Amino acid sequence: MISTSDEVLLRRAIEIAAHATTLGDAPYGSLLAGTDGTILAEAHNTVRRDNDISAHPELKLARWAARELDPDTAARTTLYTSCQPCGMCTGGIARSGLGRVVYALSTAQLVELNPESGAWPTVAQDGPALFDAARVPVDDYYRHHRP
Length: 147
Prior knowledge:
- This is Nucleoside deaminase.
- The structure is a single chain.
- This protein is of the alpha+beta class.
- Strands 2-1-3-4 form a four-stranded mixed sheet, sandwiched between helices.
- The protein contains seven helices and four strands; from the N terminus they run αββαααβαβαα.
- 48% of the residues lie in helices and 16% in strands.
């Protein structure tokens, strides 16, 4: 459920997205907030500027949180973002341990506004294969690096 406080922070994420366009960047913005609503970090999409397909604001903030926050703090944060995170960003958010995501536009709404946003091809994947060979470095690593 989205609260009035969430709406205030979500509006800030939309402002970040709008500001990004004045810089020539794509209209996507995000922020990471603590439990009291304090903004910890903000980011906008710089994919074109940086020539980096991973420069989505959600992924930038997930990476920031993984580097800068302890796991308990990360789990108590909320990521506010102008659009629903894509699959790449969702994976980064999950791995970073963030506690919650609140978004404005859904992916379906974004594709309706900009059909090109949904034009990503499916990439074929084959596997699993060579289990006995592939397991060796994994077994070796975790034998020596278990928490």
